[in-house]
Design goal:
The chain is mainly alpha-helical and 424 residues long. Helices cover 63% and strands 5% of the residues. It has 19 helices and eight strands. The longest helix is centred in the last third of the chain and has 29 residues. The model has no long low-confidence stretch (mean pLDDT 92).
Length: 424
């Protein structure tokens, strides 16, 4: 009986994403190659994806030295320690399918304040030479490879450990195929003691390193030219705000699909600690060695694009959170109530499009690349992020259709657009 109960709780995965095991295998080894290409493609001569240029840069760059790997591991360990000891807000997670409700601690704002204070003190102590930022610029590709090696190590640990103990598995990561489950993640919410690995990896090492890489590029430009361009300042401010502002809304992560449905495997681990910091910073890496001047009109237009995207993203998410928490006035919003008791908004921002927050996120992504001018490589982020959000939307739609059934069909009739009202 106990075995039957466990099988019912952790059924075998029969629906595959990413073209199944073959796609998972290709992505597991193809994405690290992409990170390495993007790390070396931007030089003083500009950004080029020509194979001859990439190979020439690889020949000049060590794969990974022990010194760089030790620094990277120290970075991870310091952040894990900070996550454990820095006080934070305690939040109850959503109820899982085994009836369990996990507790989470969110202290991102304090952690990033501590990191900023340390960086500021080092700047004063070193007369703003900041060898730590110079180290990041000089060893960027090695740091990327350190994160890739660590991604494989963490994912291997997660895969093996998921077979021991009474673990709650992700519905999408229990196919019994090694490659697919390694990629998707078997265990739903793995923890080491009080450290929740999924939310730690999502919110700490990758996002904070993204900010540090941007600052390292600004610092390098200042050391090289004696001044910094408005273009690199804009990108760094936009991306820094995105990361810092996110720490004020961390508690909302407990209800997101990544937390409640996705397992923690190579897909999320690599995405969090490798893909995000070392590809999302591509624009500042280009600008660090390619001084792009902007007119006041260009600055105003690019800033307007960013503010529009951020406004749509934040206002729509705030509206959704307000509605979920029951902080609305009677009759303020229209909605459909599902058989499970959930309520689907059909007015306000969410009456315009079913994934209007993704639209805002994508609009703001343009402001990261526009300061780079007409070199197309830094626009990788716009293209990648668009593909990511479309794929995420398709996963959301499939899971909501399975969960809500006919109610979801009615919801789509009332809110027919996915991203852009009256367009798409």
């Amino acid at each position: 009986m106990a075995v039957e109960t466990k099988q019912e709780l952790n059924p075998k995965t029969t629906h595959f994403e990413f073209s199944g095991p073959v796609g998972a295998f290709v992505l597991t080894f193809g994405l690290p190659l992409l990170v390495n290409v993007l790390c070396v493609c931007c030089t003083k001569e500009g950004c080029s994806l020509a194979p001859s240029h990439i190979i020439a840069q690889w020949k000049k760059t060590p794969f990974l030295t022990a010194e760089v790997y030790k620094v990277y591991l120290l970075w991870l360990a310091a952040l894990a320690l900070a996550d454990l000891i820095v006080p934070g807000q305690i939040v109850d997670g959503t109820e899982l399918r085994n009836g369990q409700r996990l507790k989470y601690k969110f202290n991102g704002t304090r952690v990033i304040a501590i990191l900023g204070a340390l960086l500021l003190s080092r700047g004063v102590a070193t007369n703003w030479q900041l060898p730590e930022l110079q180290f990041i610029y000089t060893n960027l590709t090695q740091l990327a490879n350190a994160s890739i090696v660590t991604s494989f190590a963490i994912s291997t640990y997660l895969y093996i450990s998921s077979f021991f103990g009474n673990k709650l598995l992700a519905l999408g990561g229990n196919s019994h195929n090694v490659f697919y489950d390694f990629f998707m993640g078997r265990e739903l919410n793995p923890r080491i003691g009080k450290l929740d690995l999924k939310l730690f990896l999502e919110m700490r090492p990758g996002l904070l390193l993204w900010v540090l890489i941007d600052l390292a590029m600004v610092h390098h430009q200042w050391l090289t030219y004696g001044r910094v361009s408005a273009s690199i300042v804009l990108v760094t401010l936009f991306q820094g705000y995105y990361v810092i502002e996110g720490t004020f809304y961390e508690a909302g992560l407990v209800s997101m699909i990544d937390t409640t449905l996705d397992g923690l495997g190579f897909m999320l681990v690599f995405g969090d600690i490798s893909l995000v910091p070392f590809t999302y910073s591509l624009q500042t890496r280009f600008l660090a060695d390619n001084f792009v001047e902007l007119s006041w009109l260009q600055i105003a237009l690019i800033t307007s694009v960013y503010l529009l995207g951020i406004a749509v993203f934040r206002l729509s998410n705030n509206e959704k959170n307000k509605f979920k928490q029951g902080k609305t006035n009677p009759g303020e919003y229209t909605y459909i109530e599902t058989k499970t008791g959930s309520k689907l908004l059909t007015s306000g921002w969410w009456g315009m499009a079913r994934h209007i927050n993704y639209t805002g996120d994508w609009i703001s992504s343009w402001a990261y690349s526009l300061p780079c001018g007409f070199n197309l490589v830094p626009y990788y982020y716009v293209v990648y992020f668009g593909v990511l959000l479309v794929h995420r939307e398709s996963r959301d739609e499939a899971k909501c259709a399975a969960k809500y059934g006919e109610t979801w069909t009615e919801y789509k009739r009332r809110v027919p657009y996915k991203f852009f009202p009256y367009l798409l």
